[in-house]
Amino acid sequence: MPGSAMPNSRVPCTFDTPLSVPFRHRVTFTRDALDPTNPCIGEALRGAARCIAFIDDGVARAHPDLGRRLSSYIQSRAAGTTLASVESVAGGERCKGSMQLPEHVVDAVDRHRIDRQSVVIAIGGGAVLDAVGFGAAIAHRGCRLLRLPTTTLAQDDAGMAVKNGINRGGKKNFVGAFAVPHAVVCDESFLATTPDWSWIGGFSEAVKIALLRDPSLFARIEAGAVAIRSRDMDAAMPVIMRSAELHYRHIALGGDPFEVRSARPLDYGHWLAHRLEGMTDGALPHGQAVAIGVAVDTMYSVRSGTLDAASGHRVLDVLRTLGLPTGHPLLVDPDAVEAGLEEFREHLGGRLTVTMLRGIGESADVHAIDGAILRDAITDAAGT
Q1: Is residue 88 classed as helix, strand or coil in its secondary structure?
Q2: N or C: more exposed end of the chain, with fewer CB within 10 A?
Q3: Which residues contact 284 (CB under 8 A, 6 or more apart)?
Q4: What pLDDT was estimated at residue 10?
Q5: Superfamily of domain 197-254+263-382
């Protein structure tokens, strides 16, 4: 440019500009999303020439006509979009145990000529959303992802996230990427076919977010725990949707959607949950692991003097009334348990930052865990 001086290679030369990239995170709750009169999925596919779909095999067994219904819906509501492929994939933590499913998604993107304006559809629980989403995130450096969460946990928490990934070496979500989904459509009708352990497991995340952000939500769960456990949708859906909203608002409006900072307040109870999942090689479901982590961290808060005992026992009572565990036999090994703290710190980066409770709806970060107090908290949580 005329008049510009050439950089001098003998002195430091730095270009430093704040970079802000606009994203839109769109989540819709609905019922019977594949009914031809329901516009939600059609709106998410608008402008896409092609799409491919991956269905959690548990969902596929419960809904054997799901692929046909999806194809029929796209023909009627998404004119101009071709559904190039629908296939069933392994669900649960097994699909996150290796790169097999993400690489399969990448191969399918290549084989079916899915470009960055086309859509990868993931239908299933949180693990399938994570693994398929990771494949979509690394193909072409990012294809559009449409999530259809089908479990309680996926609808009230996992589906709201702007991240994905797989496990490695017994470490939860060690490999992954941040990627905002193109759209999320939560269809209430899928919840009717989830097994009981999956149904109730998701409410551990609702209890968690209520303890951190919303005392009135905790009171609602407390009052409705028996009805929720019996799958009363009138009691359950307001809790699921409020939990989803609180998770969503933290991600979209909390100022740190890609978790650059060392504190992750919504991971209350998760340092231990992730450790237990690794110790059990994925046999302990995430929701149940979170319940145990929440129980232990709650009793740690009581033992360390930041939370009153009455509130701590309310938390344990709610978890148990819901049918969630608050202890596990593997917690008898303190060294194995405490190793999870360092794994958690490494995953976040920076100094150890763990969220504890000051009250129901009030939290605070701590940067060290006392091993003796932790062992007592584990005993208290288990009720032994």
Answers
A1: strand
A2: N
A3: 276, 277, 328
A4: 76
A5: Dehydroquinate synthase-like - alpha domain (1.20.1090.10)
CA atoms within 13 A on the CB side of 13: 7
CATH number of 27-194: 3.40.50.1970
What are residue 364's DSSP bridge partners? 356
**Residues 237, 282, 249, 135, Cα dihedral to 10°:** -110
Output the pTM of the full model: 0.93
Q: How far apart are CA 203 and CA 288, in angstroms?
A: 9
Could you report the per-residue pLDDT of 144-167, keeping only the tens digit for each? 999 999 999 999 999 999 999 999
CA angle 100, 266, 316 (to 5 degrees): 105
HSE on the CB side for 235, CA within 13 Å? Answer: 18
Instruction: Give the burial string for 324-341 (b: 16+ CB within 10 Å, else e).
Output: bbbbbeebeeeeebeebb
Which residues have C-beta within 8 Å of that of residue 240, sequence separation ≥ 6? 152, 155, 156, 191, 202, 206
Residue found by looking up tokens 């001086």 in the block: 5
How buried is residue 305: exposed, middle or buried, by Cβ count under 10 Å (0-12/13-18/19+)?
Answer: exposed
Q: Which residue type occupies 208?
A: K
DSSP state of 6: P
Measured between alpha carbons, how far is 33 from 55 in angstroms, rounded to an integer?
Answer: 15
Q: Where are the domains of the chain?
A: 27-194, 197-254+263-382
- Token code pair at residue 307: 């939370």
Query: Which H or E run contains 109?
Result: helix 100-111
